[in-house]
Amino acid sequence: MRWHTKPTIILMKCYVIPLLLALCPATAHAADAGKVAFFGITYLDTSLQSEAFGQDPAEVARIKLLEDLVRQTFTEQGYNLLDLSPIQEQLDTVVNPAKCYGCDARMATKLGADYALVGEVQKVSNLILSMNLQLRDAASGQTVKGRVVDIRSNTDESWLRGMRYILKNAIFKDEMGGKP
């Protein structure tokens, strides 16, 4: 039976493995996911704590943490995140790309994107925060997928849990096995 070993390995390498990869849903999805202009996550702090004590550097760091999670997840799901430098000057004039009367979709179109992606985190108090992520069609500006969630607790883990919930149960519901 030893004489079958080499032909079997060659058969696996040349035919079976490439065939399985071609049929894999993740690979097929990744090939056509689209181009995304991710305009980041805007932090809106309307809490009395920040008014009295100033902005908490840990919360600013959490915005970066969420943006990294969103970038990583979209990349893993096969989306091409575009460089924003060609429209950076225009973007710098926008306070909140999630609420700019369609400027996000117009800027995404200028970049050649299929989608605009915007997010917000609003701190109501040190206990109550609201988080929102919207994937919009660049051509029409219509929301394709999105969700708003409220979270309780102001920690790295609670923020990450909230964004993971949005990604799994709204944006990538089918791909990540989210709740029906």
Question: How would you portray this structure in words?
Answer:
With 180 residues, the protein is an alpha/beta fold. It folds into two domains: 1-32, no CATH class; 33-174, Rossmann fold, CATH 3.40.50.10610. The protein is built from eight helices and five strands, in the order H-H-E-H-H-E-H-H-E-E-E-H-H. It has helices at residues 5-23, 25-31, 48-53, 57-76, 88-91, 103-111, 156-171, 173-176, and strands spanning 35-45, 80-81, 115-123, 128-137, 143-152. A five-stranded mixed β-sheet has the order 2-1-3-4-5. Strand 3 and strand 4 (128-137) form a beta hairpin. The longest helix is centred in the middle third of the chain and has 20 residues, at 57-76. 23% of the residues are buried. Mean pLDDT is 87; it is low at 18-30.
What brief labels describe this structure?
180 residues, 2 domains, 5 strands, 47% helix, globular
Give the termini separation.
Answer: 50 Å
CATH fold-level topology of the largest domain: Rossmann fold
Alpha-beta content class: alpha/beta
Summarize the main sheet.
5 strands, mixed
Order of helices and strands: HHEHHEHHEEEHH
How much strand content do the residues show? 15-25%
CATH class of the largest domain: Alpha Beta
Count of beta strands: 5
Strand order of the largest sheet: 2-1-3-4-5
Instruction: Indicate the overall shape.
Output: globular
